[in-house]
Every structure is written in C-alpha cells, then in structure tokens.
Design brief:
This protein has 214 residues and is an alpha/beta fold. It has one domain: Alpha-Beta Barrel (TIM Barrel). It has five helices and nine strands, in the order E-E-E-H-E-H-E-E-E-H-E-H-E-H. It has a nine-stranded mixed beta sheet. Helix 1 packs parallel to helix 2 (82-90). 37% of the residues are buried.
C-alpha cells in the first residue's frame, strides 16, 4: 500500500506571512493537531480530512506549476507520513516550507525544507508544550515565529530571544494576533527595543478575512 496523509485541503494562494509573503504558493493543509491554542484560526483542520496517497498529493501540487509549496495544518508533523511527503515535494525542485507548532521533533525533516517553527507564548495556553531541543536543530534558512497576544507575551518573547540567542540562529518573526493585538502597538515595541526581528501581519486575513482555501 502506498504511503498516505490525511489532508484537509490543497489550494493555491498568496503566502500571507513568513519570508515569502506575497508570493504565489501551493498550500497542503494536513489534518489533526495535538495542541489547542487559544487563538487557533484553523480549528476546522482538527478533524475529518481525506486520506490521500503521497503520490496523489504531489500530482495535484504539480498541476499549479508552483515555485513555492507550504505544508501546514493543524500540525503536519502529527502525521508520521508528513516526513516522506516533504521529501517528495522537495524532489519537485521547488522551495518547500513547513509550518510547525514547536511541540514536535523536527530532527527527521528533510534538510531541504524551510522550517517555520513557533515558540508558543504564554497567551497561547500551550507554552508548556514547547520542545526547546528543536532550537539547536534550526538552520540559517529556517524561521522562528512568535505569535503575540499582548505585552506580557512580547516581554516573554524578548526573554527567549536573549536566552537562546535566537537572532543568531535564523530569521525571527513577531506576529500580532489578528483582531486582538493592534499591529501598530507591536511595531512600536519592536522599534523601541531595536529588535533584530521581522514584524509581520497575516496579509491573507486582510485580503480575504481568513476564508478557508484562500
């Protein structure tokens, strides 16, 4: 039997965040997540989905003739077959990124993949799930993301920047919770503290109000 992943959706859109923001990207959203963050915006991917052969997923991705592919969730690494899926997508010769929550071991991820890994802030309700061993596995091409709910989350994130010397390891992203934290406030804090991080907003939410498949 061919390897399968449970898939919630595959769609082609603009990347709404990260280093490739604004670039047309194919998104492969896998089903399931062991975390329940307070601000989760993809709870529809917790359950359901459709089991599909990895070869079938790759064939659909190829129809878009993409330059960029993002595997997201849910939490993609909750499915062990995500690892061979990532490798098969890399074999297409495109740039492949993985959006992962930071609670799962990334040591088996194909080194060609760009990991976009969260560190969960206290405001997420899932801070205790952070797998700090992953930090040592991050490559210069990877990205580390803090999703920030409030000033306390921001101060916590700044402490982690210093504790783990994160800016020296890879690009660091600070993102405000859409509709909860004023992006201008986060921008002011980053500038006031002269942080070497990239402050970002989720562009897709401003374009399409975070509709599934957009």
């Amino acid at each position: 039997m061919s390897l399968q992943c449970r898939v919630t959706e595959i769609f082609y859109s603009l990347q709404g965040e990260t280093r490739t923001v604004g670039l047309p990207t194919v998104f492969v959203r896998l089903t399931g997540c062991p975390l329940r963050c307070t601000f989760c915006d993809t709870a529809y991917a917790f359950h359901g989905g459709e089991k599909r052969a990895i070869s079938d997923i790759v064939d659909e991705v190829k129809t878009y003739q993409p330059r960029y592919v993002t595997v997201t969730g849910g939490e993609p690494l909750a499915q062990k077959t995500c690892f061979p899926l990532l490798t098969a997508l890399c074999d297409l010769g495109v740039e492949v990124s993985l959006e992962t929550c930071g609670a799962m071991d990334i040591s088996e991820v194909d080194p060609r993949v760009i990991c976009v890994m969260d560190l969960k802030t206290p405001g997420s309700g899932e801070e205790a799930k952070n797998r700090y061993d992953n930090i040592a596995l991050l490559k210069q091409t990877d990205q580390l993301k803090f999703v920030i709910c409030n000033r306390d989350d921001y101060d916590w994130a700044v402490e982690k920047l210093q504790e783990y010397d994160l800016v020296a390891k890879c690009d660091v992203l600070f993102s405000p919770i859409h509709g909860l934290l004023n992006p201008a406030d986060l921008a002011d804090w980053v500038v006031a503290d002269n942080l070497a991080v990239r402050m970002q907003i989720q562009m897709h939410k401003y374009l399409w109000n975070d509709e599934p498949g957009r």
